[in-house]
Amino acid sequence: MNPHRFPILRRIAAARWLSATAFLLGFVHFAPSIAYSHGVVGDRNFISPIVGNDAFPDNALSFTARRSKYDLSLLPEVEKMLSDNSSLLLFTGWDQLEQKGSRDLSGSRDLTIFYRQSAYLSARHEMEVTVSPFVVAPTGSRHIADQGYTHLGGEFLLGKGMGDLPEDGPFKYLRPLALQAEAGYAGRVQGPANSDVFANFEVEYSLSYLSHFVEPVNIGHPWVDLVPYTQLNYSQTLIDSRLTTLPDFRITPGLAYLGHYYELSIGAQLATNGATQPGDRGAVLGLIEVFYDDIVPALGWKPF
To answer: pTM value?
Structure first.
């Protein structure tokens, strides 16, 4: 691999990230000032991660786009609450892979169906724990998805705000911090015994929490509604339950704007080791999520 490739890709990703940031700030500058209601645990309002899932069953429709020199991914998902503490989440996508010296490949991903059940909730400690079994149905293009194999799996999800830190002294400025974590496993139910493990960890800092619950800050809308964050992403494939691919580690810093009806988020993802495709070591991501039951309240109906 060319040792100079990674710095070049970092500069490309940084330039794209700055452009996307300028667009985000320009958009939210003219957005109406509105209250929050989704992803709330106690005084904490969590953002939706730009990579992976969160621990908060919700009614939401989201769309994520990811672009690198190797891959363009378009990733829609829809979530519907079944009860006050459970939901059903459907996730799929479309990819275009650019291959040197051969024709580009494009097609749909498999459909993943998650059942999400909140297992523990503490408003006092700004904490929620959710467990989520899921099935991956072989609906995608075989040259993009996993060659027509069904998977079964599950994931553990955690959201924890740091609002129970001391309210006085220097530690009070850490109270706007929040942590989110996801860890999961999926294995084939037929064919070669291949399986996947993955995990995501996020640290976010809420300027709104700082202003409302720590000390007032002299910034207005939309700046106070911004949430900077950094994710660490991990994935790995176990081949025939014995031979293992290299672990894929990435870091994804970004910036989110969180409103009542929607969330906007942008991030730049960089590989931290040599497990990725050369053209996929730097990427730009964008997320828009709409809380549809706030727009049409009737859609918030729960069957249980």
So the answer is: 0.84
